[in-house]
Amino acid sequence: MENKNRNIKHLIVLIVCCGLAASSIGICVNSAGVFYTPVSESLGIMRGTFSMHGTISLLATAVISLFVPVIMKKYSYKLILFFSVLLAGSSTILMAFSKGVLAFYILGAIRGVSSGLFAIVPITMIINKWFYKNHGLATSVVLSFSGIAGAVCSPIFTKCIQSFGWENSYIIMGVIIIVLCIPAVVYPFSIDPKEIGLLAYGYNEKETKITSEVVKGNTKFNFFTISFICFFIFAILHTAISGITQHLPGFAETLNYSVTVGAMMLSAGMIGNILSKLVIGFISDKIGPVKATIIMIGTNTISIIMLLLAPSSTVLLIGAFLFGSVYSVGSVGFALLTKHFFGVENYSTVYPIISFATNFGGAFALSLVGYIYDFTGSYVYAFIIALIINFSNLILMYIVVKNSLSLKKIKHEKVAVNL
After folding, report:
1. What is the pTM of this model?
2. If we measure between CA atoms, which residue out of 119, 117, 146 comes closest to residue 26?
3. What is the pLDDT of residues 317-340, one digit of tens each?
C-alpha cells in the first residue's frame, strides 16, 4: 500500500524546487555582481548607475510577490511557470544586445517580474504544502541551491566575460536560467499534494487536528501590530546588507587584488550562503528559528569585521564565506520566523508582504552600495552601515519576540476559557 505522506514524489518535488531556486535567485540575483564592473566600464557609466538595473529588477520582484498567492489561485501554476521562465530567460538574453542603460532598466524590470513568479514566495508556499515534518530542513535545502548556483556560476560567468565578452555571457546566462527550470516545467505536480491524492511529508492527521481547532476561524490578520511592523522593518534592514555581496569583486579591486580574487570572494560568499542556509534550517528544527537567526546575525557581524581588517586575501576569502550567512536569514530565516511568529494559517497572507520587504531592502542596497563607492571611492562606509544595521536588528528581534509571546499567551488564555 502506498504511503501518502512518504512518497517518492515528495523527493522529486523537492528537487524541482531546487532548480527553481537556483534559477530565480542563484542566477538572476546572486550571479549578477560579476557583470557590474565590466559592463559599467564598457558603457562608460558609474557602477551605481548600472547596478540600478538590479535594483529595478528586485523592486519588480518585490511588487509581483504581493500578488503571487492570488495569481496562483486564479491560474494553473504550470502555465504561469512556463511563461515566466521563458520571459526571464529571454529578457536576460536580450541584455546582450543592449547598448544603453535604459534598455537594462527595462529588461531588468521584466526579469524581476517574471522570475518573481517562480522565486521564494511560490517556492515556500509549495514546501509548506508538501512538507509537514522536517519543514525547516526542506526549506533550507531548497533555498541553499540559490547559493550553489551562485557559487558555481559566478566564476564561470567571470571566465566567460574574459573569454567571450559580457554580451555573449548574458546569452549563456539566459540559457542557464531556462535549463534549470525545465524539470519543474515538465514534471507533473500540483501546489497541494492533496489534489493528487497525497499528504504532506510526515503529516499526522491526529496531531494536526488539534492545531486546526485552535486556529479555526482566524481569517483576518492585523498588519498594524508592533510585532508585524518591527518584523517588517527588520526584513528591510537585514536584506539591505545582502547588497554588499554583489560588490565583493569591486571591493577586492579597491584593495588592489586581481579580478580572480574578486570572483573567488563572490563564490566564497555563495558557498557560505549554501552552508548557512542548511545550518539555519537544521538548527531551527533543534532550538527554534529565533535562536538560529540570532546565531546567523552574529556570524555576519564577525564576517564584516574580518573584511574590514583583513590583512591578506586568505582572510578576505574567509570573511566573504562567513558573510554569506546574511542570505540564510533573508530567505530561510524569514520564512521560518513568519510561520513561527504569525502561524501557518497566516503564512500566505503575511509572507508575501515580508518577501516584498526583503526584496525592497535588497533592491535599494544594490545601488546604494554602488553609489557609496562612486562618491567616496571606498566600500568601507557600506560595511560600517551594515554593522549598525545588525545591532539594530537584534533590538527589533527582541521587540518582536516579546510582543509575540504576549499575544500567544492571550490567545491560549482565550482558548482555555472557550474549552
Report:
1. 0.78
2. 146
3. 999 999 999 989 988 899 889 988
